[in-house]
């Protein structure tokens, strides 16, 4: 069913006024929203918000996304959700509204495209990578898989400093998976083709390691300013999918990237998901572990990765991570860096029990190269 764009619901909610259109997607539209009166400002409603909205009759995906945001509400690297509200458009239609944190810096994708030469400097890549990685680690620790990580879904939110904080958003395709249990989903799997992991395309599986593959694609795109598989922008979706699914095909990593950066990318872009680094392991990698991306509250208090204040505890160190032992890594025959400890018999057993989702599928691809897989 084709969903109509919501242009006629300008009235807004009880406390907020709908502003200009920010974007459109398969779910509906995103608008800027502002509180009607400054005195109505509360801890739950900032002065500016982004509102995702759709006709109530086709808002199931937004309502499911609201539940995911509720479960992932305790990280400074995940976009905040301020609640939901149902309004009535001027045409009389019921509109479902999801109230989200406003990212005044736009998306990571727009930043990359607007950068000099389309590339980000390595210190910026390190900072953004660490923030995104902490968000991924938080998502995985809460038994979710995002399933659609890409620069368009990393939002840049203003902070007290002059820098923007990258935060993960758009959980419309995310799945909650259970450890030690294979869980099939009748509604299939999905994602955006250039960022999908090989096992997703060949074995219909999306697990935590699939998000790590997508992270590698994002980091490489920050370095090069180009999509991983389509640097010239002239490849069709089918050709991209074939490259990803080819067991011998790996993304090209430019020589100008630092040694630590190359090793980090190789740890993400491993064809076999069992040998791919986890988010927790990558946080100890020297590419990001030596970088301090301290997050502060509006009052200037230093916050930990869960958003809790550390200022009252002098024993706490912000962003202090376990050192990465280079002696524990090696380069496989495929050129992928991995941890030697990950090959122990105990860890092999753990790999077999990683959370994942699979389903029998057929493939439908839309014009935005957004790949959906649905049950036959």
Automatic annotation (TrEMBL):
Annotated region (Disordered), positions in chain: 324-357
GO BP terms, alphabetized: signal transduction
Pfam family, one: Pkinase
UniProt keyword terms in alphabetical order: ATP-binding, Kinase, Nucleotide-binding, Serine/threonine-protein kinase, Transferase
Any one GO MF annotation of this record: protein serine/threonine kinase activity
Binding site for ATP: 52
UniProt xrefs under SUPFAM superfamilies: Protein kinase-like (PK-like)
Highest taxon listed in the record's lineage: Eukaryota
Cited InterPro entries: Kinase-like_dom_sf, Plant_MAPKKK, Prot_kinase_dom, Protein_kinase_ATP_BS, Ser/Thr_kinase_AS
Domain Protein kinase: 16-288
Segments of skewed composition (Low complexity): 324-344
Family: Belongs to the protein kinase superfamily.
Name of the protein in question: Protein kinase domain-containing protein
Species for this entry: Jatropha curcas (Barbados nut)
């Amino acid at each position: 069913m084709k969903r109509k764009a919501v242009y006629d619901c300008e009235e807004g909610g009880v406390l907020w006024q709908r502003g200009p259109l920010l974007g459109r997607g398969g779910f509906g539209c995103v608008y800027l929203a502002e509180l009607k009166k400054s005195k109505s400002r509360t801890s739950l409603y900032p002065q500016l918000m982004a509102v995702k909205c759709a006709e109530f009759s086709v808002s199931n995906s937004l309502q499911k996304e609201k539940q995911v945001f509720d479960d992932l509400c305790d990280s400074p690297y995940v976009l905040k959700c301020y609640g939901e509200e149902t309004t009535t458009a001027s045409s009389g239609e019921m509109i479902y509204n999801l109230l989200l944190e406003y990212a005044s810096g736009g998306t990571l994708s727009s930043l990359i495209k607007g950068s000099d030469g389309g590339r980000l400097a390595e210190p910026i890549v390190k900072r953004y990578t660490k923030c995104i990685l902490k968000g991924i680690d938080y998502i995985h620790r809460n038994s979710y898989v995002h399933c659609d990580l890409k620069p368009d879904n990393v939002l840049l939110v203003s902070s007290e400093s002059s820098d923007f904080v990258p935060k993960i958003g758009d959980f419309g395709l995310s799945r909650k998976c259970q450890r030690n249990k294979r869980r099939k989903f009748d509604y299939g799997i999905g994602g955006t083709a250039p960022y999908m992991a090989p096992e997703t395309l060949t074995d219909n599986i999306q697990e935590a390691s699939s998000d790590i593959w997508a992270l590698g694609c994002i980091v490489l795109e920050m370095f090069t300013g180009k999509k991983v598989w389509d640097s010239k922008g002239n490849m069709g979706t089918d050709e991209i999918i074939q490259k990803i699914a080819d067991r011998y095909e790996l993304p090209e990593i430019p020589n100008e990237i630092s040694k630590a950066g190359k090793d980090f990318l190789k740890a993400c872009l491993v064809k076999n998901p069992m040998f791919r680094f986890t988010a927790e392991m990558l946080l100890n990698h020297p590419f990001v572990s030596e970088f301090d991306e301290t997050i502060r509250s509006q009052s200037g208090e230093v916050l930990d990765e869960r958003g809790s204040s550390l200022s009252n505890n002098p024993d706490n160190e912000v962003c202090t991570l376990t050192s990465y032992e280079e002696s524990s890594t090696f380069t496989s025959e495929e050129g992928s860096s991995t941890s030697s400890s990950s090959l122990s018999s105990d860890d092999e057993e753990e790999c077999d029990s990683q959370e994942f989702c699979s389903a029998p599928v057929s493939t439908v691809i839309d014009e935005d190269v957004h790949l959906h897989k649905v049950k036959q």
